[in-house]
Amino acid sequence: MESSCRVSQYLRFHDPRIFSRFQVSRCRKIFSKPLSTTRQRKKKQLLLHNTITSIGIPLQDSVSCRSFQENERVLPCEGSSPVTGGIVALGKFEALHIGHRELAIQASKAGTPFLLSFIGMAEVFGWEQRSPIVAKCDRKRVLSSWAPYCGNVVPVEFHLEFSRVRHLSPQQFVERLSKELKVSGVVAGENYRFGYKAAGDASDLVRLCKEHGLGAYIVTSVMDKHQCPSDRTSEGDNPRERGQVSSTRVRHALAEGDMKYVSELLGRKYRLVLAMNGGCVVVEKRMSAPKSCMLNQQPREGLYENCTLLIDEVLVGPCRTIIDATHIHIELSCEDAQVWAPFWDSQLIGIEFGYFGEA
């Protein structure tokens, strides 16, 4: 029921003028039964894909829609809490960088770890929409890679609709965590602010959690050891930026094409994900795709050596990547042009940029 409700919300939010009651109902029915086998999951994904594309959503949006069901937990329609008894790390978790990983590590030490953040902030504040740093369909893989740091437990994302909590005072927000979500404790960075107009800080969080019988764990910011704040940030960025690792720094590094620096901030190689939705051309060892295929933020235009190609999570091999004004071009290093054969039946292509863990 949770998944079908979420799909309905997504469809109506995407453009409520073009979806009839029948079309929304059809998508709800696709998720009406539990998934028990890999074959059933693939069949259900195909049904959802065919339904969504038949009513006019581009493929990259259908992938994002599917990721709601696979990678995120949101407050169910019935109002129950899937985070009961857990430890929730608080933050935006946009880049899933090494600072965010430290929050997850602390949460795992105290109990069952969850990442709690808000969705819909851009719509509420009228912010310009921009590509995510981590593709929605790739977030589960990243969180799975954190398991060795978190006692072999994979942190789970849990999202709240920002419009439902934006007017809560710091006191009311902690009350909701305690009484409605029934968490056991919270983890936050030392610069975390919460409540209406960011009225509460880390010390307020500790005090309020103590009043409500919750554990509170404040984590020292992970600092960027290689850069000073003026090197990577610009005027108008977060005024609380004091040189700590941040999503803003990751975005700036991507915009500059500094993939070594990006990998240092993320603690992993950066993966660019493409949804194959037409317009792609394969000539011998080279595949070219329009930028509309990209599901997350691209690096700066230019040539990138030492990349790795994956097709539907299957490692293909080394490649080099060229990004120009309109397209992304992938050139395979191997001699066998037939390696592109799986591409025609694939949905996602991943490109990992080098440097993490390399000399």
UniProtKB/TrEMBL annotation:
<dbReference type="GO" id="GO:0009231">
    <property type="term" value="P:riboflavin biosynthetic process"/>
</dbReference>
<dbReference type="GO" id="GO:0005524">
    <property type="term" value="F:ATP binding"/>
</dbReference>
<dbReference type="GO" id="GO:0009507">
    <property type="term" value="C:chloroplast"/>
</dbReference>
<dbReference type="GO" id="GO:0006747">
    <property type="term" value="P:FAD biosynthetic process"/>
</dbReference>
<keyword id="KW-0288">FMN</keyword>
<feature type="domain" description="FAD synthetase">
    <location>
        <begin position="85"/>
        <end position="227"/>
    </location>
</feature>
<feature type="compositionally biased region" description="Basic and acidic residues">
    <location>
        <begin position="227"/>
        <end position="243"/>
    </location>
</feature>
<dbReference type="GO" id="GO:0003919">
    <property type="term" value="F:FMN adenylyltransferase activity"/>
</dbReference>
<keyword id="KW-0547">Nucleotide-binding</keyword>
<keyword id="KW-0808">Transferase</keyword>
<comment type="pathway">
    <text>Cofactor biosynthesis; FAD biosynthesis; FAD from FMN: step 1/1.</text>
</comment>
<keyword id="KW-0285">Flavoprotein</keyword>
<keyword id="KW-0067">ATP-binding</keyword>
<dbReference type="InterPro" id="IPR015864">
    <property type="entry name" value="FAD_synthase"/>
</dbReference>
<dbReference type="InterPro" id="IPR014729">
    <property type="entry name" value="Rossmann-like_a/b/a_fold"/>
</dbReference>
<protein>
    <recommendedName>
        <fullName>FAD synthase</fullName>
        <ecNumber>2.7.7.2</ecNumber>
    </recommendedName>
</protein>
<feature type="region of interest" description="Disordered">
    <location>
        <begin position="227"/>
        <end position="247"/>
    </location>
</feature>
<keyword id="KW-0548">Nucleotidyltransferase</keyword>
<dbReference type="Pfam" id="PF06574">
    <property type="entry name" value="FAD_syn"/>
</dbReference>
<keyword id="KW-0274">FAD</keyword>
